[in-house]
Amino acid sequence: MDLQYSEPIVHKPKAKHTATILILHGLGDTGHGWSDLALEYRQQLPHVKWIFPNAPTRKITVNMGLKMPGWYDIVSFDKINGMEDEQGIKESSRYIQSLIAEEVKAGIPAKRVLVCGFSQGGVMALMALREPVEVGGILGLSSYLPLHMAPTIVAPENKDTKVLMCHGTADPVVKYEYGQISVEKLKAAGAKVDFKSYPGIGHSVCPEEMFEVAAFWMTCVGTA
Question: Where would I find the Phospholipase/carboxylesterase/thioesterase domain in this sequence (predicted)?
Fold first, then answer.
């Protein structure tokens, strides 16, 4: 499938560039939907370059085949293994790895690059664990791990990479239990993962969650 990935939204660092954060949006969204984070956190993280990639437009089976931005196709939300489009996941993973490679070429070590995402974007962030490139940290918000990939999810290079998963207990789209199962599978595969729950929160983020996300970012890349 020949899909086009449009240019990502990029916010340059306020100070000397020493780290990069990639934020991967969810199904039907674009990088613009999350790009305000760069403005919100530029004081706390002045050394960070922010990259907000855009998923290609594709037919999404669960949405009656309508075309919309998506990192991969989703067949069903009813069970965790009904969401898997392995070809699409791998194609988008290659694209995300190319963005990391560009940062390395520009002089930023891969271990100073954080890969973060919401929902479908969180799945793509977790896929960075499979690659033989050590990244600085991985964040999945309201997300899950494709179960058939679980046994091989952690490459030796990323066995010590910090992973944070955050999930609202009232999520009607990616069910909270999917997040719980995913964390169990990640731990079984050897990932260094932490899991945060937010009572009553649906398929979205909340201020308490973003406070912990910011703390995670600062733990991974510091404040300068």
Answer: 8-219
